[in-house]
Amino acid sequence: MDRVRIPLRLPATVGTKKTLETNMDLEKIKKLIEFVGSSRVSELTVSQEGTTVRIIRENNAVSPHAPSSQARPVPVTETASETPRAREQAPASVAAAPALSGVVAAPSFGLFHRAPSPGAAPFAEAGDEVRQGQELFIIEAMKVFNTVRAERSGRIARFIANDGEDVELGQPVLEFE
Description:
This protein is a component of the acetyl coenzyme A carboxylase complex; first, biotin carboxylase catalyzes the carboxylation of the carrier protein and then the transcarboxylase transfers the carboxyl group to form malonyl-CoA. The protein is mostly beta strands. 14% of the residues lie in helices and 36% in strands.
């Protein structure tokens, strides 16, 4: 992966680097930047303990917007099929699952979830026919839930990753027949 130098511009209201370290771990911010840079996510906003970090990808580059000392609300649209876990955290993105040779790989690092919430029925089972755009699984990265949808229609042969397992970017998680 190419390294990209990203200047961090802080508004006068934010304060010093110490403020950033106190409210949000800089390593977490670096991981968020890497996540946006290596995924199909074009914008990501994360709030923690009164600090908000917004990262926007523009022209294949990742541009972090300065964190603010006050969290701003983000509008969330609820749908009838939304689950309790989905309501707890707004999804950062809805990614299409890349399917090469019938194998679907994780579009980012994180925890692999087959169901929308603990105890709920999985989005799909081995042997199920799925259609293009259907939800397949969720990748949870730093309490941000990314719903992954089928890029094509077909029958699921098997799940390679186990529910709740840590997965890496590009790791095979399910296979189509």
